[in-house]
Amino acid sequence: MNSGINSFYPESDIGITREDEDIMKKEFVIGVTGASGACYARRLLEVLCQDAKVHIIISEVAEQIAAHEGVSFEGFNATYHAINRIAAPIASGSNRFDGMVVIPCSAKTLAAIANGYADNLITRTADVCLKEDRTCILVTRETPLSKVHLRNMLTAEDAGATIMPACPGFYNNPETINDLVDMVVARVLDHLGVEHTLAERWGGYGA
Ligand SMILES: Cc1cc2nc3c(=O)[nH]c(=O)nc-3n(C[C@H](O)[C@H](O)[C@H](O)COP(=O)(O)O)c2cc1C
């Protein structure tokens, strides 16, 4: 007698075992790079870990900045990959995860991704997303933007990335920093196709 998920997917039919229940979960990669705003990455990690399989890669500078900004990525039910582990499964297109978010995304990592310079696990995994036509969201954070940054954004977007600058709206009347963080993360989750209640949706005003 099958139960739970296996009542819908009899093992004898398609070979899914009880141990494979995780297979139904979406699987995402989070890359954290050395731009300000580690809090965005932590919030995304927190939400995605509730119902998805999550891989996280943190660059060396991102580690330093997160420590400086008082943000920790420890203790989540995620797979932590070393930035230089270029042979990790997610570095191959044959590994079928659903998408990646680089959050925050430094101008340097943006440049690397836009130009296919896949020298670490974050840039390589983003490269995989672009070549495999998978979601690749770059939450850039820099201001002002030089022509180099703007060109790289356009190049990355042309290659299939979604550029989502860490740029919260104020139309929900945020009261705390957490509200502002959630405004940004909510839009990222929308683009990943993940349900959430992080921020109210605009309902219009006036008559
Ligand atoms: C405290 C601090 C804050 C930084 N903030 C930004 C930023 O907001 N945006 C950015 O593009 N670079 C920023 N940088 C510069 C990047 O960290 C630097 O270009 C680094 O080489 C990025 O490497 P990574 O993308 O491999 O993490 C910052 C550096 C430091 C030390």
Rg from alpha-carbon coordinates? 18 Å
Residues in helices, as a percent range: 25-40%
Q: What percent of residues are in strands?
A: 15-25%
**Which structural class is indicated by helix and strand composition?**
alpha/beta
* Average predicted local confidence, pLDDT: 91
Number of helices: 8
Globular, elongated, flat, extended or rod-shaped: what is the shape? Answer: globular
Order of helices and strands: HHEHEHEEHHEHEH
Instruction: Please provide the count of β strands.
Output: 6
Low-confidence stretches: 1-12
Q: How is the main sheet built?
A: 6 strands, parallel
Distance between the termini: 58 Å
* Bound ligand species: flavin mononucleotide
Major sheet: arrangement of strands: 3-2-1-4-5-6
Structure in words:
The longest helix has 16 residues, at 177-192. The chain contains 8 helices and 6 strands; from the N terminus they run H-H-E-H-E-H-E-E-H-H-E-H-E-H. The relative contact order is 0.15. Strands 3-2-1-4-5-6 form a 6-stranded parallel sheet, sandwiched between helices. Helix 3 (38-48) packs across helix 8 and helix 5 (107-114) packs across helix 7 (147-158). Helix content is 36%, strand content 15%. Helix 3 (38-48) links the parallel strand 1 and strand 2. It has helices spanning 5-8, 11-14, 38-48, 60-68, 107-114, 121-131, 147-158, 177-192; strands at residues 26-32, 52-58, 79-81, 99-105, 135-140, 162-163. The chain has 207 residues and is of the alpha/beta class. The model is unreliable at 1-12 (pLDDT under 50). The site of flavin mononucleotide has 15 residues, from helix 4 and helix 5.
